[in-house]
Design a protein that fits this description.
It is built from ten helices and 13 strands. By secondary structure, it is an alpha/beta fold. The chain is globular and about 50 Å long. The protein binds S-adenosylmethionine. The site of S-adenosylmethionine has 25 residues, from β6, β7, β8 and α5.
Length: about 290
């Protein structure tokens, strides 16, 4: 048995015992490995960075879907950028109110291998008739897209390799253009304790584009370094000020049973710590 050492950070990281190597391949875009670990279940990594594990994926996927969709209240058209493992798609597809899901994933091998080795992530969601799966660069898609979406979710790798474009000024501008009136953009934006510069850069890019921009957080154990931030950009500041009772009614109405998300967690997730507020030049969580 050997260990898988994550190489995201210099001089700091996590290792996973690899009880069984299930698949390893250099795809057209990145190095992919899927293996079994006694604590985290099946684990997928891309270019040396842990992407998802069976044990804790629910936290990340529930928070990047139910928060924007329930805050919006009437999301019918959802765009997922990245998300090749299918977990984001699974959670979006649980919303009966959503009528159309477009998913733009650059690497078809990630989709194929995750369907095969991580079937619980997508749980059949790739067969959802509402899905339009596009194998392409998400940057190219939003730059040329003529459709509009109520919620856009960027579920990308870190800003290295193919994921780098999904943190660019052009990407946020293009996403803003593809948002319908009242739309919401959310993106995975790394762990601020380890990647504070990335949060600052995103903040600088979002504030000129969105009426309301902020971040929200959740601690995902295998995204090491503390809580992970999700960038939030919308054309309606009221979304972040929804009464708890409204969120409770919408959550109950969705009929969705979750393992992490609940309305109180939703509201609390937008409360950022001082060092993050200071880094993004926001005087408060308002
Ligand atoms: N949860 C992970 C995280 O927070 O880092 C992300 C998981 S998901 C597997 C990341 C996906 O983004 C991968 O399937 C990768 O192929 C995809 N991706 C990376 N760059 C992309 C791009 N430019 N366009 C579309 N998909 C991209």
């Amino acid at each position: 048995m050997s260990d898988y050492l994550e190489t995201l950070y210099e001089g700091y990281g996590q290792s996973f015992r690899m009880d069984k190597l299930l698949h390893e391949v250099r795809t057209e875009h990145q190095h992919l490995v899927i293996f079994e670990n006694p604590r985290m279940g099946r684990v997928m990594a891309l270019d040396g960075v842990i992407q998802t594990t069976e044990a804790d994926e629910f936290i990340y996927h529930e928070m990047l879907t139910h928060v924007p969709i329930l805050a919006h209240g009437n999301a019918k058209r959802v765009l997922i950028i990245g998300g090749g493992d299918g977990g984001m798609l699974r959670e979006v597809s649980r919303h009966r109110s959503v009528e159309q899901i477009t998913m733009v994933e650059i690497d078809v091998t990630v989709v194929d291998m995750c369907k095969l080795y991580l079937p619980e992530h997508s749980k059949g969601a790739f067969d959802d008739p509402r899905l339009n799966l596009v194998i392409d660069d998400g940057m190219r898609f939003v730059a040329t897209c003529t459709e509009q979406f109520d919620v856009i979710i960027s579920d990308s790798t870190d800003p290295i390799g193919p994921g780098e474009a999904l943190f660019s000024e052009n990407f946020y501008q293009a996403c803003r253009r593809c948002l319908a009136d009242g739309g919401i953009l959310v993106t995975q934006n790394g762990t601020p304790f380890m990647q504070l510069e990335g949060v600052q850069t995103t903040a600088g890019r979002m504030q000129g584009l969105f009426t309301d921009w902020h971040f929200y957080q959740a601690a995902v154990p295998t995204y090491i370094g503390g809580a992970m931030t999700f960038a939030w950009g919308s054309t309606d500041a009221a979304y972040r000020k929804l009464p708890l009772e409204t969120l409770r009614q919408r959550f109950a109405g969705s009929g969705i049973v979750t393992r992490y998300y609940n309305p109180e967690i939703h509201q609390g997730a937008f409360a950022l710590p001082q060092y993050v507020l200071q880094a993004i030049h926001k005087p408060s969580n308002d």
